[in-house]
Amino acid sequence: MILLDGKxxxxxxxxxxxxxxxxxxxxxERVPHLAAVLVGNDGASLTYxxxxxxxxxxxxxxxxxxxxxxxxxxxxxxxxxxxxxxxKTLDGYIVQLPLPKHIDEEKILLAIDPKKDVDGFHPANFxxxxxxxxxxxxxxxxxxxxxxxxYKVPTNGKHCVVVGRSHIVGRPISILMSQKxxxxxxxxxxxxxxxxxxxxxxxxxxxxxxxxxxxEYLTADMVKEGATIIDVGITRVADDSHPKxxxxxxxxxxxxxxxxxxxxxxxxxxxxxxTIAMLLKNTLLARQWNAS
Length: 292
Hints:
Oligomer: single chain
CATH superfamily of the largest domain: NAD(P)-binding Rossmann-like Domain
Helix content: 40-55%
Strand order of the largest sheet: 1-11-8-7-5-6
Number of helices: 10
Shape: globular
Order of helices and strands: EHEHEHEHHHEHEHEEEEHEH
CATH topology of the largest domain: Rossmann fold
Mean pLDDT: 95
Distance between the termini: 44 Å
């Protein structure tokens, strides 16, 4: 069994980005600038945004955190987004999800300038990605592709089952895995919570991407020997014996599935760190594309 170490790989990518930014500084060029918009005080969102800000500092990016009140109106948030769209010193920005229930997430995401949409959620970027044009790829699928490529995981002609159909992970990774490229050329099946006899599908798969959001759903009897397992799930599960009162679980029952897998990602330390690294990569791309 080979562990696909997202923490190690993400650190490699950060070092590569850091070297590029150092070169930009030495030439007197403006360094990439990433902003994050956070509405409210959701604990997980605060943690994620804090990690992104620290990562920006590490690689040498400029970063701005815009922290807004939970009860902010949709109209005021839209005005803030328009201001960011017009800011020529800003290469990219994210709006941290989820947003409060009184705000229409779709309306907010559509208001983001696609050229600054480093999360890759805007339909313009999704469409360009599907057409294999230059685009900001959603950070989690981007991270999966990088991990597969850097570990030289065989994907050419393999059967990949993606479990989950979200616009953030499931659908984009199904498109990327089927495209031509070093981590592509797979034959892809998209499954989801309504798929009948799901275990029969996963037992046929050479590669399984689990993005269902149900802790430890994938068990050893659902996997064939030698499969590659990509676990995107990240769920807080209550655990009174843990100092934090919870533990993080993936969608894969790791201990038993790892006995059969050839390649497997851990949770935590797998896809999560890669997501932040690819957000940085998208921001660097934004700086380069907007300068050309």
